[in-house]
Amino acid sequence: MSYRWSFILGVTAFVMALSGCIPRPQPVRLAPPVNAAAGVGQGTTVGVAVVDVRPDQKLGIITDAHDDKVPVTVGREETAGIYQSVTQALARMGFKTKPLADDDPVGLTVELRELSLNELYQTGSYDVALKAVLSASARNGVDTYDREFTVNQRKTAGGPTTQAETTRMVNDAVGLALSDMLADQDLTALLRR
Q1: Burial of 65 by CB count in 10 Å (0-12 exposed, 13-18 middle, 19+ buried)?
Q2: pLDDT per residue over 38-66, tens digit each?
Q3: pTM of the model
Q4: Hey, which of 45, 55, 60, 162 has its CA 20 to 30 A from 104?
Q5: Closest Cα partner for 170 from 125, 121, 114, 124?
Q6: Which range marks the domain in which residue 122 is found?
Q7: What mean pLDDT comes out for the span 72-100?
Q8: Does the pLDDT value for residue 126 go beyond 70?
Q9: What is the mean pLDDT of the chain?
Q10: 170 lies in some domain
Q11: Which residues are within 8 A (CB) of 7 and not within 5 positions of it... i.e. 6 or more apart?
């Protein structure tokens, strides 16, 4: 009887372990942390816009050990999280911000150009590749400055990432690209001129 119970408990634990490892669809909310140097803005008012120019909302796919594919998505409405992070960072830098209008003399448009996450099971672990590409277009009067900021990250994980882990990784990558953008001295000099 003890062998039978051991067998049943072993099979139950195995099934539970397998069911716990199967990834579920993961919508990701954006609220990226942005680092910014204090005091460089000198009170200049900047109109800010954030635009998602990706062809679709798909962020990527998690492929598990059984070759099941699970979608990871970031909705277009998530640009509000990027907008909030950028405007808060600009405020810490000493700029005043407002939503961008056509007649604003100083403006910053941030485009979410690419966001991809691919997680593939390979011989006992998951290979995770993440890429974030954002572009900044700044203008002050007739002067303009455009630049693209790219973050590539790769890691190995013991199991499929949870929704919380995926959200953290994506936000960290987007936040790093935005931090690089706001650390660009040519961009900030143009905005405060």
Answers
A1: middle
A2: 888 889 999 999 999 999 888 999 888 88
A3: 0.84
A4: 55
A5: 114
A6: 24-192
A7: 95
A8: yes
A9: 88
A10: yes
A11: none
Would you state the pLDDT for residue 13? 41
pLDDT at 14: 47
Question: Which tokens is 68 given?
Answer: 């099941």
For residue 39, the domain's CATH number is 3.30.160.150
Residue 89 lies in a domain: yes
Q: What is the 3 state secondary structure string of the chain?
A: CHHHHHHHHHHHHHHHHHHHHCCCCEECCCCCCCCCCCCCCCCCEEEEEEEECCCCCEEEEEECCCCCEEEEECCHHHHHHHHHHHHHHHHHCCCEEEECCCCCCEEEEEEEEEEEEEEEEECCEEEEEEEEEEEEEEEECCEEEEEEEEEEEEEEECCCCCHHHHHHHHHHHHHHHHHHHHCCHHHHHHHHC
The reply to whether 10 falls in a domain is no
